[in-house]
Every structure is written in C-alpha cells, then in structure tokens.
From TrEMBL:
CDD domains per UniProt: Glyco_tranf_GTA_type
Gene3D superfamilies: Spore Coat Polysaccharide Biosynthesis Protein SpsA, Chain A (3.90.550.10)
Protein's organism: Candidatus Uhrbacteria bacterium RIFCSPLOWO2_02_FULL_48_12
UniProt xrefs under Pfam families: Glycos_transf_2
Residue ranges of every copy of the Glycosyltransferase 2-like domain listed in the record: 3-131
Superkingdom: Bacteria
Name of the molecule in the record: Glycosyltransferase 2-like domain-containing protein
C-alpha cells in the first residue's frame, strides 16, 4: 500500500482537487492521510463533505494537530501510515492518473533505490528533473518533496528547519546510503495558490542576486534569508 500524507494549513479550497486526482489513480492500493496543521478555515468540514462521497475502498483519513509547521505534520502522518511506501503531497498538487503506478513501478524495477521522483509543473513552468547524481544533490536540491519513499528508509523530517526540509531529507538519506531513481515524466502539477509552493521564484532571480551579493554585498532581505537557510543545511551535512 502507498500512504499519501498531505499536510494542510488553511488549504480547504485546494484539497478537493488534490483528492480528486488521487481518486482517479490507475494504482488502486493507496490511502490518503490528511494532517490538518491547526487550520482556521473550513478544512475539516470540506474534508468531511468530500469523504462522504468516496467509495469504501478509497480510504481518506483526517487528523488535526495544533499548528506547528509542515515538517511535524508530515512526521505525524508517517507514524499513522499503514503503507509500505510513503508519499508526502502538498495540498495544492494535482496528480496525473498514472503517477502512483509509474513511481511504484520505478521502485520495483530498481530495488537499489530508496525513493522514486519525477518532473513536475508549477502553473505553466516545467521543473525538469535529472538522473540521480549524488554530487549534484550535495550542491543543490533537484528533487521535489513528493517522491515515493520506501517506508523502511524514511528517517523523518527535521522539524527544526524552516526551509529546505526536502533537501535535508534527501541528504540525510544519502548519508545512510539511500539513493533515488528518476522517472523522466511530469507526473503532477502544483496549482498557483496563495500558499505552499506558490512562493517559487525563477532561477534567474537567485542567479541575479547571487551576482549582486558577490559584487557589492547587497540583496533583498528575502534573498539573505534564503542564503541563511541554505547555509544551515550545508553546515548540518558538512558541505561547507
């Protein structure tokens, strides 16, 4: 079974589309665990209304925590999961109907891999992945949080990190000898919303401000926060 863990904080409006895309999956052996991270909107009611229309074999469970951030919500969901495989999905994702089937097949065909990951879209923008490369991963993250992970290889998210929790996860797994396998297809799309992945900025933004910082030492506060968060992960893993 695949356990799909969805942390949600005031994502009531986005959840139905995400859940509908899961119900359309060609792979049927799955459960969805929605971990409400202390939402103040109508997330709980929306989930309750939605699950009433589900068939009995489509298991969607709901749990609510006090607000403490997505890493803790993901870890809580992992503890509740019944599947041998874990997939952490943002509430604003819409999955291709073959997503679970293809990532599961990639793991079956590559027993040396601890997780399978793919390309994806954010709105109109394509994020094309690459074949797994440990050296490249130590430089920058190119793997989305929503990879399919063998449960026995999952070390948990670092709940102290405010950013780069996904990069930290893959680096932690790499230290344990766990690598990934790339599925060279776009298997999900992130909706452009006011929350979650919608904070994405184009690569040129980071490249431009990295040059400016090197030349004159000035950049927006948001870029300095990005550098500080990245440095925390790099120091943790001995990369600088």
């Amino acid at each position: 079974m695949i356990s799909i863990i969805i942390p949600a904080y005031n994502h009531g409006a986005a959840l139905p589309s995400c859940l509908a895309s899961l119900r359309r999956q060609s792979f049927s052996d799955w459960e969805a665990i929605i971990v409400d991270d202390g939402s103040t909107d109508d997330t709980e009611q929306i989930v309750n209304n939605y699950t009433q229309s589900c068939r009995p074999e489509q298991c969607i469970r709901y749990f609510k925590l006090d607000h403490s951030g997505a890493p803790r919500a993901r870890n809580a969901g992992a503890k509740l999961a019944r599947g041998s495989y874990l997939l952490f999905a943002d509430a604003d994702l819409i999955f291709d109907q073959t997503a679970l089937k293809k990532m599961f097949a990639a793991l079956k065909n590559n027993p040396q891999a601890a997780y399978a990951y793919c390309s994806f879209k954010f709105g109109w923008k394509k994020f094309t992945g690459r074949t797994f490369n440990a050296a490249a991963l130590r430089q920058n993250n190119y793997i989305h949080t929503s990879a399919l992970i063998r449960r026995e290889c999952f070390p948990g998210f670092d709940e102290q990190l405010k950013r780069f929790q996904d990069w930290d996860l893959w680096l932690t797994m790499l230290k344990g000898g766990h690598i990934g396998v790339f599925v060279p297809e776009i298997l999900f799309q992130a909706r452009v919303t006011r929350r979650g992945i919608s904070a994405w900025r184009p690569r040129a933004w980071y490249y431009f401000w990295s040059l400016v910082v090197r030349l004159i030492g000035l950049a927006p506060a948001s870029f300095h926060r990005y550098l500080e968060a990245k440095k925390i992960v790099q120091l943790k893993h001995g990369l600088i």
